[in-house]
């Protein structure tokens, strides 16, 4: 055995010698007419256990030295979290308090209509004060309905600000104004984006630049403006950037290379911002919807009726999603229910990308 193992440390050699008779008595097969005895732990002398304990206790434990690691140091947890096991929700009379957004101030870009407005209403129901930012001079009629409901039924406030996310001068000013008004900013849904169907062979540089200016640069600048206010007030916060399943796959028979590339960029942007801003207690995640029956998509089906059945058939649920199916996801990502989630993509696509 010594030839096979080479030179063993002294602590190992004593253990090896102690085990040799055990292997011979208890494990050896019948050889030359001798029958091996059954293994009996009592046959090991007490001196062996004493030797094993002595050697183990005298050998210093190998410790991990963080200074030798190439990984960046993790951000320090809040002082009140160190060495404690949270029991905040044990025995409480509240119902799912971690989903509450009471007293939170949240901005939703692209919030004048569609999924953005529907998510804004969900945030209002959870207790938040919501600012919808959109490039439209006036919000939709549906916005007025939600705004009245917020005031009369929910006891909250839904505000509207006209803003183009490409305006890098006005964008930070509006966010600072909101922060000054409330003394805080807790959340952001960065949903402003648009889609184009143009063959990659026909795309003009101007069109591609415009697409990326809204869907990538606009998202980055919006997140930056929100993060600066969160850092300014020192409360941390949660940022949700709206991606798409199209950032993960190429959509069959849907010619939109630039759009899909922009959404893939949003997913990667989310991971990197999460890494940079974790030290400020700012979480950054992306939410990727699948094909959704919005008002605009319904209008599209009038021109391309074949797409309605085809798009739905490409996922496991065999249907299109509804805008309201993204309400709960927005509340989850912006609330304490997702307090240990950052740098992730929450894809809700009916299993489209899982085929």
What topology emerges from the helices and strands here?
Elements: H1 2-5, H2 10-27, H3 46-58, E1 105-109, H4 114-125, E2 129-134, H5 141-154, E3 158-162, H6 170-182, E4 187-190, H7 205-233, E5 237-242, H8 257-277, E6 282-289, H9 295-303, H10 306-313, H11 327-334, E7 345-348
Parallel strand pairs: 1-2, 1-4, 2-3, 4-5, 5-6, 6-7
Helix pairs in contact: 2-3, 4-5, 4-11, 6-7, 7-8
What can you tell me about this protein's structure?
This protein is of the alpha/beta class and 355 residues long. It folds into 2 domains: 2-29 and 36-53, no CATH class; 101-354, NAD(P)-binding Rossmann-like Domain (Rossmann fold). It has helices spanning 2-5, 10-27, 46-58, 114-125, 141-154, 170-182, 205-233, 257-277, 295-303, 306-313, 327-334; strands spanning 105-109, 129-134, 158-162, 187-190, 237-242, 282-289, 345-348. It has a 7-stranded parallel beta sheet, sandwiched between helices. Helix 4 packs parallel to helix 5 and helix 4 (114-125) packs across helix 11. It is globular and about 55 Å long.
Write a concise keyword list for the protein shown above.
2 domains; disordered N terminus; Rossmann fold; 355 residues; alpha/beta; 7-stranded parallel sheet; 7 strands; globular
Distance between the termini: 53 Å
Helix content: 40-55%
CATH class of the largest domain: Alpha Beta
How much of the sequence lies in strands comes to 5-15%
Q: What structural category arises from helix and sheet content?
A: alpha/beta
- The largest sheet has its strands arranged as 3-2-1-4-5-6-7
GO molecular function, one term: oxidoreductase activity, acting on NAD(P)H, oxygen as acceptor
Biased composition (Polar residues): 56-71
Region (Disordered): 56-86
Pfam families: adh_short_C2 (PF13561)
